Amino acid sequence: MRERLEALKGEAVLVIGRAQSLDELRETKIKYLGKKGELTRVLRGMGSLPPEERPVIGSLANDIRGCLDQMIAEKEKQLEEASLLEQLHKEVIDVTLPGIKPESGTLHPLQLIIEQVEDIFVGMGFEIAEGPEVETDQYNFEALNLPKGHPARDMQDSFYINPEILLRTHTSSVQIRTLIEKEGSVPVRIICPGKVYRRDDDDATHSHQFTQIEGLVVDRGVSMSELNGVLLTLIEKMFGEGTEMRLRPSYFPFTEPSLEVDIFHPEQGWVEILGAGMVHPRVLENTGYNPERYTGFAFGIGVERIAMLKYGIDDIRHFYNNDLRFLRQFKTV
């Protein structure tokens, strides 16, 4: 048995010395020193030895185990150091090489328009109001003089979650929430930017999701001439001084009188950009304001339409495709 142990030791020493990786070394340790390893298999035969030889063989086996353990530990350290040096060599950085300039991002063109409009109206004393995109029928329609069954609801084909909850079709619902929160106090001067949703077929000029900025003023003595002045200020700051604006009669259930606003575009002629009007007396009543004492005006801006005119974009889908070739064009805007 002594010869078998010595032979086993010599074999293990050679295998340990040839190990090229930590995984290979771990397998060697299991093979020779594991619970079911070669050394254990040899020692199982000690029962057949004379009693006086057993201590000698046991001591020899322990010495061999200790020797192999030490050799494995030293080899493991060598392999770990070699692996670290190889990794450091692979990851070496030449500090003399020119740096890689990081690519900076930019605001989305729609966000650029939103922030420009917000700056314009904040400069005129307006506040920015926000509200939920999932809205109740009461705030989205009924308080805006659009009771159930009203034919004008067909103009805003909606995404309903249940009969009383839907994705808002306009940010006018934020105006209603604000008026109710104000509890009849004045003045109210707000704009409400945000996403809105309507069931529509997506094409170059339509989308089921788009962005609106609606505005509202309620106070004593608010007139159509003030609305005209606010809109003209907006248009000249967005499209340049001297931009022509015209107002055309229209119909919206929540304003009376109502109007469409056009601007003259050098290439496209007269182009509709927003709707507006004087707040309907029923809307004031529905939100706790006396229409005999207070008046107001409201307007709604399509952010995509403004961006398409301002930046010469011919397809609304460019705003939502996340094409970096398109978005990079706005780095200098």
TrEMBL record:
Entry GO terms, CC: cytoplasm
Keywords, comma-separated and alphabetical:
Aminoacyl-tRNA synthetase, ATP-binding, Cytoplasm, Ligase, Magnesium, Metal-binding, Nucleotide-binding, Protein biosynthesis
**What is a GO molecular function of this protein?**
transferase activity
Q: State the needed cofactors, names only.
A: Mg(2+)
Stored CDD domains: PheRS_alpha_core
Instruction: Please give the Pfam families that the UniProt record associates with this protein.
Output: Phe_tRNA-synt_N, tRNA-synt_2d
Catalytic activity reads: tRNA(Phe) + L-phenylalanine + ATP = L-phenylalanyl-tRNA(Phe) + AMP + diphosphate + H(+)
Q: What is its EC number?
A: 6.1.1.20
- Compartment annotation: Cytoplasm
Q: Which residues form the Aminoacyl-transfer RNA synthetases class-II family profile domain?
A: 113-329
Q: What is this protein called?
A: Phenylalanine--tRNA ligase alpha subunit
> What is the organism of origin for this protein?
Thermoactinomyces mirandus
Give the lineage: Bacteria, Bacillati, Bacillota, Bacilli, Bacillales
